[in-house]
Amino acid sequence: MGILKRLFLPNQYVKDIHEIDFQQLEKLDIRGIITDLDNTLVGWDEANPTPKVEEWFKTIDERGFKVTVVSNNNEKRVKAFCKGLNVDYIFKAQKPRGKSLRKATRKMGLKKEQVVVIGDQMMTDVFGGNRSGLYTIMVVPVKNSDGLATKVNRLIERRILSHFKRKGYITWEES
Ligand SMILES: [Mg+2]
Asked: Which keywords fit this entry according to its UniProt record (predicted)?
């Protein structure tokens, strides 16, 4: 099961983005953040960032991190969401393919060792980040998503997650 761990186990697993410890990331020499949008920053059906999410981006900026929103969703959705935040973004990213993650890393002027990928999906965000050699943080989805592809991914994800929990790789328990 070593390969499962290498490809699908996130470096960290947290309840939501607000639990992410920036000081710890700084200690790891991480200077850039690639974040997923749907169900990571807000629910998949929420058009705009909440005040709390805006605050999160402000903190990131104040701490001097570079940031890029990398989403598999379409231009309209991603552009509208990011407009008010004034952050770079990549839409139709085709995660888990690594191309968009490498592009975001390059545009931030960073090396892969300096970048974290944050996302709610093991099959796209974590898998994509891990195989591209980036640090990965998985969050619990803000809301359950409808999409069929996502449903299938979630099914596989739950099985791998429970395997990791049995092995003791993941200590945080979903309530
Ligand atoms: Mg997502």
From this structure: Hydrolase
